[in-house]
Amino acid sequence: MSPPAHNSLFPHAAHAEVHHRGLPQTEFTCAFSQEERSLLLRLAHDAIVSVLQSRNLCLEAPTAHLAEARGVFTSLYLRDALRGCVGYVYPKSSVFRAVAESARAAAFEDNRFPPVTQEEAAGLEVELSILSPPQPIQPEAIQIGQHGLLISQNGRRGLLLPQVAVERHWGRTTFLRQTCQKAGLPADAWQSGASIQAFTAEIFDDKQ
Fold first, then answer.
1. The pTM is what?
2. Is residue 30 scored above 60 in pLDDT?
3. CA 65/CA 95 separation, integer angstroms
4. How far apart are CA 86 and CA 113, in angstroms?
5. Overall domain count for the chain
6. Does 101 lie in the same domain as 163?
7. Residue 5 forms part of a structural domain
8. Residue 2 included in any domain
9. Do residues 106 and 59 both lie within one domain?
10. What mean pLDDT do residues 13-30 have?
11. Is 190 in the same domain as 97?
12. Vertex 86, ends 114 and 56: CA angle to 5°?
């Protein structure tokens, strides 16, 4: 199975903004048990290694919960530096399959970085962000640390994960302006007809 292209338009895969780790969780905290989190993190690592070893990987979800369709972003770190971040905004497959596909894309298809090597794979750390479906939101309802943003207008779309605003100490207005700029839109497009959607994320990583 080929990893998804990092530069496709939504609802396909896209990269996320660089962010740090260990940030506040959202309202979806604990939607996945510790056992499920561990399983998904191991899956992300195995999906990357399976490409390097040219072997097949079964992506049939082992439980009904992990078969639910969810958007997913996988962030890879090597020695605490970002090594790739790619994901799906909209639910397109089971969370189990989406974790594997986004991990492979982050490792091999994020054109900000060269493909991960066999030597690097052993030292990678994985962070997963499991997204809720984006929903329209009024600017005044946006909560920093809880909501990620997806802003679109005239065929352009930009996304920032919830972690970004927290890590960069942005307020609501700055978060909106930065998401517009990520889309290649004027910074004030959120005030002039752009579509504003928000989502939440359950975030967990190898260190947890």
1. 0.80
2. no
3. 9
4. 12
5. 2
6. no
7. no
8. no
9. yes
10. 45
11. no
12. 80
Alpha carbon distance 90, 205 (integer Å): 21
157 and 94, same structural domain?
A: no
Q: Kindly tell me if the per-residue pLDDT of 144 is higher than 70.
A: yes
CATH for 51: 3.30.700.20
Residues 114 and 194 in one domain: no
Q: What is the pLDDT of residues 178-199, one digit of tens each?
A: 999 999 999 999 999 999 999 9
pLDDT > 70 in the chain, percent: 86
Per-residue pLDDT of 78-103, as tens digits, reads: 999 999 999 999 888 999 999 999 99
Tokens of 169: 């100490």
Q: Six-digit token pair at 36?
A: 């499920």
Whether residue 62 is found in the same domain as residue 144? no
DSSP three-state, residue 197: strand
Contact 70, 91 (CB under 8 A): yes
Number of C-beta neighbours around residue 91 at 10 A: 17
pLDDT at 136 over 80: yes
d(CA 76, CA 94) in angstroms, rounded, equals 21
Calculate helix-pair angle for 95-108, 34-52, nearest 10 degrees.
Answer: 40
Domain that holds residue 179: 135-199
d(CA 100, CA 57) in angstroms, rounded, equals: 9
